[in-house]
Amino acid sequence: MAAGQPPLAGAGDRGSYSSSSSSSHHQHHHPPPPPPPKILLAKPPLPHASSSGADDDGGGTGGAGARARQAPQQGSLSLVSDSWEVHTDKILPYLTENNDFMVIGVIGPPGVGKSTIMNELYGYDASSPGMLPPFPTQTEEIKLMGKHCTTGIDIRISNERVILLDTQPVYSPSVLIDMMRPDGSSTIPVLNGDPLSADLAHELMGIQLGVFLASVCNILLVVSEGMNDLSMWELMLTVDLLKHNIPDPSLLTSSASQDKENKNDDQSGSEDYISDLCFVHARLREQDFSASRLTLLKKALEKHFNSSCFRIGSSSAPGQVSDSSVSSSAKVEDLASSRQDIFLLPLRGHDNSTKFEYGTHSCMLGMLRDQILSWPARSFSKNLSERDWLRSSAKIWDMVKKSPVIADYCKALQSSGLFRK
Predict the structure, then answer these.
(1) Which residue of 100, 163, 179, 389 has the fewest CB atoms within a 10 Å radius of its CB?
(2) What pLDDT, in 10s, does the model give residues 142-166?
(3) The pLDDT of residue 340
């Protein structure tokens, strides 16, 4: 019995939090929002802090802390919590009625620098003393312990009114361990509350993140490690396949719904919205930085997404190099158009002083920031305020979790024999 206590305690902690979240989500439909959701939103960092202490002291006596793989954090502002529920009450005060804003999300596997990129887009200056990054990043200790920093979806709003969405890693062993019960089932109800095996639920979580981000962001950064890992390309093709009947966020506002009723017309053609993608291949070595390799990668990307709804290579500048035989004196940045679909980031040295032909990691990270923030990204169908966007995003998250298309895909995966039943 003693050996079985830690997993059971962990499952109990997760289950109690999930049930509390679902009850608060149910209460959210009543006009006056009750205080419990705010209390719940403030609770998630506490178990991680206590579990970290148990691990550090070597006195893990059971509970979720004995096997939790999430790194301790100083607190976060979560749009989607670790119980896979959306929360807006805590975020709403940070948003305004301003309708001149941009939404940028990021998705990718663990350890590729997603949070580092989002901190750069936020405008965080690591050289400022006493300043903590808005999105926590992995330290060497966290990497050695096999933990992840982000759970669910964290949100921040920069001074330039850029809404940034940082997500938990996909294809992450530590996320899978956190959500697995002793019998192999998932502790997180990812699809209509139906019981699923942890490995299948983990697969669906990555798809749901991709569908949601592609539905509510203007730009979605897809981060991969190295030049040859195309698993994120495959994931985004799956997202394109399953993003069905998810409307434009601007058409879910009360004013847009009223306009549609008054006009009594069919807007199904304008309801299809999908964000622009920017593929970031990170942790590259010096031999990966060549104009010919970048050109070949661009060709492969355009061919890979040729039949998808994503805009890939459609806005290349006239006269852009399209042949793999390029001059040896050409530079990587010279081959980029004003709307670059692929961006390369070098491997970051321990002292951040490793200099490539095109600059250091921090220099190229700054180039990425400048380009993304000046990118003429796809806009929503209608003007909407930041607060309207948040309310619409909550509705879209609910649609994604209840999507019949994703549910059918889940059944197909279950019958494939690749996942536990």
Answers:
(1) 100
(2) 777 667 778 899 999 999 999 999 9
(3) 72
